[in-house]
Amino acid sequence: MEKRKTSRRRRRKIQLTPFQTVVFTLVGLCLALGLYVSVGSGVGTAPTWDEIYAAVGLAEPLPADDLPENTDAVHFIDVGQADATLLQSGGEYCLVDAGDTDSEQKLMAYLEERGVTHLKLLVMSHPHADHIGSMAAVLEKIEVEQVLLPDFDKAPYPTTRLFEKVMDAIEASGAVVTTAAPGQSFSVGSGSLQVLAAGVETDNYNDLSQVLLFESGELTVLLSGDGEKPVEQAALEAGVVPQADVFKAAHHGSDTSNTMEFLQAIRPRYVAISCGLGNSYGHPHAEPMERFEQVGAQVLRTDQDGSVVIAATENGLQSYTSSAAGEKEAA
Ligand SMILES: [Zn+2]
């Protein structure tokens, strides 16, 4: 009797609860992975992320192209030394700026590949060529429900031929046209785009740029076009600058913008810079790059990473880049 009791107790000791089984399995997998990595590195052939994922039986991270249509995401489309930002929510889209004239093919191909045939909203941050260059093409090829324009009462009215062409295309499209004003909110899928500020009185078109907040599910994105210090200062003084996960570096990462006060109010987790490789402006400038680092943001840039996508996934926010080098970083 006494013997049987003892042996039963012993047997119970080595029986694992489901929780213990899971813990031991995970520890085992980690040890196996560590061994696999160290052996792999030892012979000079470190395993790729794909191999590591395969070794531990996990699926590879989802490439941005395969994200479900109802994902909350922001796309900083690689349009060289220009700007085109696509906001996505619940299968609906908003495009903020439309690159320069040279990037028309790239921009249209990007939109077509993702099945963007309808824009809930098209925003013109300000009337410079690197933001409106392919806007007429977008209006001609994609159905646009509403267009948001800068407040042209705050600056001399633009007279360039490109601007006139865009305004003609807007009129021909039949889209509803709205002039930006603080407090406006536009729905995009299950999210919204809010106008926090709408430029300052200026003769510098950069400072017509709105300060916009896109909020959808777990994703918040702050955009301020090419707004310079006066735009940032005015928004801070009005007390409308919120914390946001993602910030598009203002004015392509120029030192005319991206002040420390502005960045400290936003506290972005990601800063995305839209600029062209070896551009003549020297964008992004060294000083704002230091400030992005100081606020602890991860910097992604279209000149090095290609198009950048930041999406809300079941594992939290995830960044994806179209260049091979960037793809690995995103993993
Ligand atoms: Zn610009």
Would you mind describing this structure in some detail?
The strands form three sheets. Strands 8-7-5-3-2-1-16-17 form an eight-stranded mixed sheet. A seven-stranded mixed sheet has the order 9-10-11-12-13-14-15. Strands 4-6 form a two-stranded parallel ribbon. It has helices at residues 2-14, 18-42, 49-55, 104-113, 129-132, 135-141, 161-173, 229-237, 260-266, 286-294, 302-305, 324-330; strands spanning 73-76, 85-89, 92-96, 118-119, 121-123, 143-144, 146-149, 176-179, 185-188, 191-198, 210-216, 219-223, 246-248, 270-273, 298-301, 308-313, 316-321. Helix content is 35%, strand content 23%. The N and C termini lie far apart (59 Å). By secondary structure, it is an alpha/beta fold. The chain folds into two domains: 2-55, no CATH class; 64-330, Ribonuclease Z/Hydroxyacylglutathione hydrolase-like (Metallo-beta-lactamase, Chain A, 4-Layer Sandwich), CATH 3.60.15.10. It binds zinc ion (ZN). Zinc ion (ZN) is lined by residues 83, 128, 130-131, 226, 252.
Distance between the termini: 59 Å
Identify the overall geometry. globular
CATH topology of the largest domain: Metallo-beta-lactamase, Chain A
| CATH superfamily (homologous) name of the largest domain | Ribonuclease Z/Hydroxyacylglutathione hydrolase-like
Describe the biggest sheet?
A: 8 strands, mixed
Please, how many domains?
2
Note the beta-strand portion: 15-25%
SSE series? HHHEEEHEEHHEEHEEEEEHEHEHEHEEH
Which ranges are low-confidence, i.e. pLDDT below 50, for 5 or more consecutive residues?
1-14, 37-45, 48-62, 324-331
